[in-house]
Structures are given as C-alpha cells and as structure tokens.
Amino acid sequence: MRPVLVFLLACAVSLSSSAVILENGQPIQWAHTTDKMTDMPVNNGIVNPDPWHYLYRMSFYRLLIAATDPFMGSMGTNATDSPIWGLPLQLGWMLTSGRLADPTGATTCGLQTGDTMCISHHSWWGCQNYFVSVLPFLSAAQQGLLGAVQIQMQAPAGVMDYCTTYAECAASYPDAMAKWDAFYQGLKAAGASPLAENEKKDALLGLFWAAQMASTYASAACKAKQSSYSSVEVAFLNSWLNSAEYVSAAHFQSNLQKSAMFITPLPGRILKDGDSAPNIADLSTEENHTLSIFSWMNMVNNMLGGSLVRMWNSAMCSVQTREKGREMLEQLLLNPGYATGTFLSIVTGMSTGC
C-alpha cells in the first residue's frame, strides 16, 4: 500500500454510535480519502484497491466527482452540484448506522470492537453498495476518465461472489456496465450538445439514474444476505429500494445539499423485531416519518400490483412533470402534514395527462 494512503487510513477516527452523514459539510471521513489515483495500491502495474475498506470506497467517489466535474457545468455553479454526491452521503449513512458491519456476528468487521472502517462481505448493504461504487468506478476508468490505468479490485479471502475488473463486471452485469458507460459518454459529449441548459441537465440526470437503477437491479445478487437481518429491517430495505424508483424517474438532482435533506431522516440504526414506525421510541420524529412513508409507498404499490410505480413513471414524461414530481416527493417525504391521499390523487391525474 502506498505511504500516503497508509497515513490516511491511520488518520481515520472511531465513529460515534449516532448516525450522521456530514462532518464539516462533507461526507463522513471525506477528509481522510484521496483524490489521487497514485495513492491507490499497485500490484504488478495494476491499481489494486480494497473495496472492503470504507475509505477506499469513499475515495472512489471522490475520484469520480473530480474526474466528472469538468463536464457537469449544466448542473449548476456550486462545487457540490454533481448528482454523484448522493452516493458518498448514502455510503456514509450506511457506515454510521451500522449497516456495513457483519450482521452474522461471525466477525468484528465494522463493529466498534473491531475495524470500524471494515465493510463486511456478509452485509446486504455493503453488497448493494458494491454495485453503485465499484461498477461506476470501473466504468469511469474504462472510459478514460481516470487516466491510463488498469484496475482490479481486491476480494476477501475465499470470496468469489464479486466481479473485480471491468471485463468481469461487464460479463456478469452487462446492462449496468453499459449504462454507466453511456452516462460517462453522455457527459463527455454534453459540451457540444445543442440542447438548452435545463434540457441538457435533465438528459444527463436521466443517464445517471438509468445507470444507478441498473446497478440497483444488478444488486439482486445480494438477496441471500437479507437472511441475516430482522424482518423489519428487510421490509425497510425493500421499501428503500422501492423509493429509488420514484426519485430516479423524476431525475432527482442528487447533489450534496438535496441528498442530505433526504438521507438525514433515514433510520440511524439497524431495525430490529418489534420496531414499528411511527412509534419507535429511540428514533427521531423525522426518522419515524420517513419509515412510515417508505412503508406506505411500498404497501400501496404492492397492493396495486406495481401500478403505483408504473403510474409514476408514466407521469414523469417531460422536463416539466419531472420538476413537479421532485416537488411532490419533497413534500411527501419531508413534510409530515402532507397527506398521502393528495400524493396518490395527483399521481393518478398526472399519469393520464402525458
């Protein structure tokens, strides 16, 4: 391992038990990550990072943001306007809420009594995040955004479940890799696009969310790992996956500020049997509200045989309706006084108007 990254890893501080997603206005442990490919370990001329260490995964995002920012002009003038910022915030929430730790109890990976920066390959959340961290990173390298490098991820001893190179991931998850490739290609071509800036922004967000959702669908490979969690946590993770259908169709600009608004009220610990929102005593009002809304959205969609998601997708048919959709989601998730029936009736009406 390179000396600089050894120093960065040594600087990592132990985490508190409460889940926070920002420190000094940046994702958790951001100050201890690297924005230089030369800080990554190299084995026989091949960059060989460890995606089962939190700081490496967070460094992937920092490198991705730095590499793509020159093409993100249509997203805004702030340094944190890139939609990629939502991914490191999400990873930080998984870390501080204990969701990257070993849920089987077989190791101390990710626990306060072990290596707090360890991401367990037994963790469903760690597995799911692999698909939205490693896959986009390998694709960016393939598209030349990270310099002339070859990359092969380290794998835990005896674990063969994860692709470690671009070629392996493209063979195992062709749709996800093709969509990440398309996103980066679209970014590089955006400067020459004749589209108005708002339309260019919407088109790029469409490519970004298509890639993120393809990675999410590919993470169905993680399903067996759900057996290590309570039924309440499994219900939550499934409703969390379902919520992505709505934000992706609305082309949500997952910049740092907006992502923080939606990730902060996620539950700050793993849910256990007996937890019942909105009455979980040791969670905040906001966390209880978010859990209730996620559960409601998933329940209604299941009751309607998936037609709530289909109606929403039908309604998100233009730049204008997607803007309205983003406003509705903000109200539904962040305003406890917003009636779920209002959301349902508006979606029904919008879906017939496209």
Could you outline the blueprint of secondary structure elements for this entry?
Blueprint: H1 3-11, E1 22-23, E2 26-27, E3 42-43, E4 46-47, H2 54-68, H3 86-96, H4 124-131, H5 134-142, H6 166-172, H7 174-189, H8 197-218, H9 231-249, H10 256-263, H11 285-303, H12 307-315, H13 319-334, H14 340-351
Antiparallel strand pairs: 1-2, 3-4
Helix pairs in contact: 2-3, 2-5, 3-10, 5-7, 6-7, 7-8, 8-9, 9-11, 12-14
Structure description:
The chain is mainly α and 354 residues long. Helices cover 51% and strands 2% of the residues. The protein has 14 helices and 4 strands. It has helices spanning 3-11, 54-68, 86-96, 124-131, 134-142, 166-172, 174-189, 197-218, 231-249, 256-263, 285-303, 307-315, 319-334, 340-351; strands at 22-23, 26-27, 42-43, 46-47. Strands 1-2 form a two-stranded antiparallel ribbon. The chain has a two-stranded antiparallel sheet with strand order 3-4. Strand 1 and strand 2 (26-27) form a beta hairpin. Helix 3 runs parallel beside helix 10 (256-263). The longest helix is centred in the middle third of the chain and has 22 residues, at 197-218.
